[in-house]
Amino acid sequence: MNAFGHFLRRPEAASIISLLAVIAFYVIFGGVDLSKLFGAASWVNFAANLGIVAIPVGLLMISGELDISIGAMIPAGSMTTAILSGYYELPILVGMLGALSVGVLVGIVNGLLTVRTTVPSLIITLGTLVAMQGIILSASVLLTGNASVPLDAPAWAKFVFGQLIGGSHQIIIIWWVVLTVIFAFVVHRTRYGNWIFAMGGDRDSARNLGIPTNRVTVILFILSATSAAFVGMCQAILFNSAQVSGGMNFIFNAIVSVVAGGVLLTGGFGSVIGIFVGTLTFAIVNQGIYFTQIDRNWSNLIIGVILLVAVGMNETFREKALSYVPKKKKT
Known about the structure:
CATH architecture: Orthogonal Bundle
Order of helices and strands: HHHHHHHEHEEHHHHEHHH
CATH topology: ABC transporter involved in vitamin B12 uptake, BtuC
Structural class: mainly alpha
Strand order of the largest sheet: 1-4
Number of strands: 4
Distance between the termini: 22 Å
Low-confidence stretches: none
Helix content: over 70%
Mean pLDDT: 89
Shape: globular
């Protein structure tokens, strides 16, 4: 019982319970065959592309900020890679570095505007979202005359960033797992993670304790924008082309995954593992319904219910964690 109580106080408790509940719901009411579901590549590929973006977005939310410009950074990463290495036929490394550089630049702009003004990060990133959409479309038409640009990446780039493992599973799945492990170590095993949680709890107190809140905020925005550009770059290499549209769904999907993963919208509470599991949960709800007998039109309702339940559980588990007082051992 003590072990279960300790589990309920963990930030990822809500995400794990949500995942188990979704699977049980699909099995009981949807007649899903778990062997077919878990053997399918569609929802895993979906989760990997979303998960790489969701983790840094989740860390920003833990710190008390939000970045919705990711919706434009995914096509920005794709188009930058395709224009430089596809249209102008520069080495693929130039295109990749160009895509990541755009992510770093936008992240710096978002971060600096957030820390140097009193405008909420939601409004700032909404502005960069719209601005980047205009820049992507205008630059593509001006430079190439088209809104879609083909790309023929060399074999080594395909192998590392655009390979289909077994003919179905995208190589980005491995990138997702590796990045999750790295983020989990940094956030939960180093002082930098403590800084992020402290900022989400009370930014002024964190600053008074000597935490470089402005610098950490800018770095988190850079990670968010660059991760989205990285996903766009991988998609361009995988699909041999890039388009100016796409990426907007990532805004909603990432926020739902983060909240389902146990992160509070008010900041200061969450975990990388929880975000990872929350992304899996959202992917199974979004893609797994095609393996059930449930009408596809019900998928959005299921997502909405999961989001509401997750928000309620997150707050409950946070209260349990804050009110927990370990019992003293009897001597």
